[in-house]
């Protein structure tokens, strides 16, 4: 995970033989730039960089308790943060099932659009992209559009196209379309942002 913030910390490697490149590595850069006004106690983050066998520890001095609702939100490297979610956009194409499985392999799920504001955000980040799979499919039993988290499609969103048993949802711009799940498109994964 690559995390970026704006403050200073004390960051020491556990070895005196740390090469300069490792000192500028991912976690050291994180330690040197990490900071949020919402920390209420001393925080220690340790991470073992396995190839070099080096442990870095980052500490931040105690700061007064945060106000309710404040906090830093973190996403893994190459994910986009928006609201309380992290989003990852694929660069390759797969069918809907393999796209869903890829998201699960990232401890995430395919995109579940909860409201128009989130749809607008997705539209902004996918501008110019081809068709993008989202976590929307037709349930075999009822023939209803259902998100991968089990929730029904909100009536504010309309799906153009077939709602038959092997139909999955994709977006381009602000339109949700139906396609057979075997078609190959890019996809979007999402997960909750970590709050520290």
From TrEMBL:
Keywords: Lectin
One GO location term (cellular component): plasma membrane
Keyword rRNA processing in annotation: no
Residue stretches making up the C-type lectin domain: 82-190
InterPro entries on file: C-type_lectin-like, C-type_lectin-like/link_sf, C-type_Lectin_Receptor_IMM, CTDL_fold, NKR-like_CTLD
Any matching Pfam family: Lectin_C
Membrane-related topology note: Single-pass membrane protein
Record-level Gene Ontology MF annotations: carbohydrate binding
Signal peptide feature range: none
CDD domains xrefs: CLECT_NK_receptors_like
Cellular location(s): Membrane
Keyword flag Signal: no
Protein name, UniProt field: C-type lectin domain-containing protein
């Amino acid at each position: 995970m690559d995390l970026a913030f704006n403050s200073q910390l004390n960051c020491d490697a556990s070895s005196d033989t740390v090469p300069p490149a490792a000192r500028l590595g991912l976690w050291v850069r994180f330690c040197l730039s990490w900071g949020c006004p919402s920390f209420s106690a001393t925080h220690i983050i340790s991470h073992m960089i396995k190839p070099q066998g080096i442990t870095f520890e980052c500490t931040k001095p105690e700061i007064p308790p945060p106000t309710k609702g404040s906090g830093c939100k973190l996403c893994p490297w190459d994910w986009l943060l928006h609201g309380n979610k992290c989003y990852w956009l694929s660069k390759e194409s797969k069918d809907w099932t393999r796209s869903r499985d890829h998201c699960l392999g990232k401890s995430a799920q395919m995109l579940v659009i909860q409201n128009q504001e989130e749809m607008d955000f997705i539209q902004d980040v996918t501008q110019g992209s081809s068709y993008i799979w989202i976590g929307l499919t037709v349930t075999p039993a009822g023939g209803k559009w259902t998100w991968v988290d089990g929730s029904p499609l909100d009536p504010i969103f309309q799906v153009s196209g077939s709602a038959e048993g092997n139909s999955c949802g994709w977006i381009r711009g602000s339109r949700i379309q139906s396609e057979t799940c075997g078609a190959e498109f890019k996809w979007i994964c999402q997960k909750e942002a970590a709050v520290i």
